[in-house]
Write a structure and sequence with these properties.
The chain is of the alpha/beta class. The protein has two domains: 10-187 and 223-249, NAD(P)-binding Rossmann-like Domain (Rossmann fold, 3-Layer(aba) Sandwich), CATH 3.40.50; 191-221. It is 47% helix and 15% strand. The chain contains eight helices and seven strands. It has a seven-stranded parallel sheet with strand order 3-2-1-4-5-6-7, with helices on both faces. Strand 1 (10-14), helix 1 and strand 2 (34-39) form a beta-alpha-beta unit. Bound molecules: nicotinamide-adenine-dinucleotide (NAD). Nicotinamide-adenine-dinucleotide (NAD) is lined by residues 14-15, 17-21, 39-41, 64-67, 92-96, 115, 142, 144, 187, 189-190, 192-195.
C-alpha cells in the first residue's frame, strides 16, 4: 500500500461499525492504513477500534451522524487533530427500507434520502476541502445494484442509490482537476447484519435467506469481506486509472 518511507495513509469509513463498513475498515487496517471508524453507533465503533489496536493496527473511533452537517464537521475536526488529514473517504453509511411509493411515508422517504444521499454531501463538504488543498485524495461511495435494476418494494432505497451513482460522476467531474479519484461500488445482496434484521421480521427467516441466496446467479449471497476487497483495490494506487466508475460486485446478478 505505502512505499517504503511514506507514512501510512488515513482512511475514514462511515457506517464502519457494522457489516460492509466494518469489513472495509478491518481490511484497510490490515493493509497498513490508519483507519477512522466513523458511525452513529459509537459503542460498536469503539469496540472495533479497540480490537484493531489490540492487533497492532492504527485506528480511531469517532461518533458521526451523516444526516447532520454539524455532527460531521465536529467529528472530522476532532478526529483529524489526532490522525492528520484524511486521504481516503469511504461513504458507506446507509439505511434500507422496504416499500413502494404508496406505502413509504413522506417521513420515511425523507429519512432515506437524507441518510443515503445528503449524508454523502455532508461528509464530502467536511473532507474534500483538505483533499483539494493537498491536490490528492480518493473517495468511494457505496451504491447498490438497486441503482441498476428494478427491485420490488424498494422505491426510496433505489432512488437513493441511483442518486449516489449520479453524485459519484458529478463529484468526479468537479474533483478530477485536483487529482481526486471518485468511484462507486454496487453490491448485490450481502450477508451483513442488515440482511439478518430484514429476515428476522419474516415468518420463516431461514427460508427467506435461502430465497435471497437463490436469487443470486452464483447461488449464494456475498460476504462483507468480498465488498471490502473491491474497495481496497479502488482506494489503492493499483486503481490509478479508475476514475468516476461504477463497480458491481453482485455474483452476476446484473450480468444477465
Ligand atoms: N447488505 C447488502 O445487501 C447491501 C447491498 C447493497 C448495498 N449495501 C450498502 O452498503 C452499505 C452498508 O450496508 P450494510 O449491509 O453493512 O448495513 P449495516 O446496517 O450492517 O451497517 C450500516 C452502518 O451504517 C451506520 N449508520 C446508519 N445510519 C447512520 C448515520 N446517520 N450516520 C452514520 N452511520 C450510520 C449504522 O450504525 C451501521 O453501523 C449501505 O450503504 C447499504 O446501502 C448493502
Amino acid at each position: 500500500m505505502t512505499t517504503d518511507n511514506s507514512p501510512p495513509r488515513t482512511a475514514l469509513v462511515t457506517g464502519a461499525a457494522s457489516g460492509i463498513g466494518q469489513a472495509i475498515t478491518e481490511t484497510l487496517a490490515r493493509a497498513g492504513y490508519q483507519v477512522i471508524v466513523a458511525d452513529i453507533a459509537e459503542d460498536r465503533a469503539r469496540a472495533i477500534t479497540h480490537n484493531l489496536r489490540e492487533q497492532g493496527q492504527k485506528a480511531e473511533a469517532v461518533l458521526l451522524d451523516v444526516t447532520r452537517m454539524e455532527s460531521v464537521q465536529e467529528a472530522v475536526t476532532t478526529v483529524t487533530q489526532r490522525t492528520g488529514p484524511i486521504d481516503i473517504l469511504v461513504n458507506n453509511a446507509g439505511i434500507g427500507m422496504a416499500g413502494t411509493v404508496l406505502t413509504t411515508t413522506p417521513t420515511e422517504w425523507d429519512r432515506m434520502l437524507t441518510t443515503n444521499v445528503t449524508g454523502i454531501y455532508h461528509v464530502c463538504r467536511a473532507i474534500v476541502p483538505s483533499m483539494i488543498e493537498r491536490q490528492t485524495g480518493v473517495i468511494v461511495n457505496m451504491s447498490s445494484i438497486a441503482a441498476m435494476v428494478g427491485l420490488r418494494e424498494r422505491a426510496a432505497y433505489s432512488a437513493s442509490k441511483g442518486a449516489v451513482l449520479a453524485l459519484t460522476r458529478a463529484l468526479q467531474a468537479d474533483l478530477l482537476p485536483y487529482h481526486i479519484r471518485v468511484n462507486a461500488v454496487l453490491p448485490g445482496t450481502i450477508a451483513s447484519p442488515w440482511i439478518d434484521r430484514i429476515t428476522a421480521d419474516m415468518p420463516d427467516p431461514e427460508k427467506t435467506r435461502e430465497q435471497m441466496a437463490a436469487r443470486q446467479p452464483i447461488g449464494r449471497m456475498g460476504s462483507p469481506e468480498e465488498i471490502a476487497a473491491v474497495v481496497a483495490f479502488l482506494v489503492s494506487d493499483a486503481a490509478s486509472f479508475v476514475w468516476g466508475a461504477q463497480w458491481t460486485a453482485d455474483g452476476g446478478l446484473t450480468a444477465f
